[in-house]
Amino acid sequence: MDSVQFKKYYTTVKNFLLGPKNKEFLIFLFFFFVSAAFWLLQSLNETFDVELKIPLKLENVPSDVVITSDLPSDLNVVIRDKGTVLVRYIYGTEQVPVRVDYKDYDKGNASGRVSVTLLDVQKKVQAQLLSSTRIVSLKPDTLEYFFNKGARKKVPVKLAGVVETSPEYYLQRVEFTPDSVEVLAPSAILDTITEAFITPVYFLDLSANEKTISMLRPVRGAKFIPDQVEMNVMIDLYTEKTVEVPVFGVNFPGSKDLRTFPSKVKVTFRVGMSQFKEITADDFVLAVTYEELMKNHSSKIQLYLKSMPSGVSNVRIDPSEVDYLIEQVQEENE
């Protein structure tokens, strides 16, 4: 841009800003900002309450001590002072952590719960503030931690929540890796813990296997190692299978035998694809006892499964009733 063009733009801007209407607007803006500045200064001289978040740390913990439930990471402190002072806290340097010394509360116990005196913490907070600043409230109002020097045990990991599949699938199993975790806690708390539950999960209408990392549900005063596990939800597709199962007589005298018509019946059941080949007719037992037949006054007997493998459902017997005959058999001579 040459000097001629610059002078042209400068003149245009100057005439625009110093025109009669724009000049009045600029004067209005000037007095507006002056008024706002006076209002801000006056407001900052008034007293306000603000909340500060101050870090809280437990220090000097011996190497042989495990903190199973720590102090809260922050204190919420409501303070009162003039606005000019509060601005320094809000926009000034970062708050210095309030430090709690483990040695001040160490009584030589192997485990337990320690309550930190709120008054001591408040004094440490006040030491960081100006003399004109007053503490209105401090939260949490209960400060405690749990420690342990050796009491521990292993507990199994358990599912919490809901796991449901779509209708054509079924839940095969839920596995956790690791399947058990170590829990450290004061003995009074440790005795009450028999399982480690994951934080509740909600899987609905599953149609595929699901793998996820699950955190263990916290227990006040206890620490789980590790505090998370891998959860593997395995589902399977349903299918139907039919096998022919013979009908047996049980508890019959040596001189009597049972004959049914037919001698075998069809057993149809629902099973997962992974077990389809494994389950055979030998896994089912259809038995009729001599005592049942003696109480039966019909020519037919209702069939019931005495035994069937796990993992099958919706079992149907066809026919569910059979004709029967008790035969007299020739006993062998001794």
The proportion of strand residues reads over 45%
Order of helices and strands: HHEEEHEEHEEEEEEHEEEEEEEEHEEEE
Through-space gap between termini: 132 Å
CATH-defined topology of the largest domain: RNA Polymerase Alpha Subunit, Chain A, domain 2
The appropriate CATH architecture of the largest domain is Beta Complex
Task: Give the rounded overall mean pLDDT.
Answer: 85
The CATH top-level class label of the largest domain: Mainly Beta
How helix-rich are the residues, as a percent range? 10-25%
Largest sheet: 7 strands, mixed
- Which structural category do the helix and sheet elements fall into? alpha+beta
Principal-axes shape call: elongated
* Count of structural domains: 4
* Radius of gyration, taken over Cα atoms and rounded to an integer in Å: 41 Å
How many runs of DSSP E, i.e. beta strands? 23
Number of helices: 6
Which regions are unreliable across 5 or more consecutive residues at pLDDT < 50? none
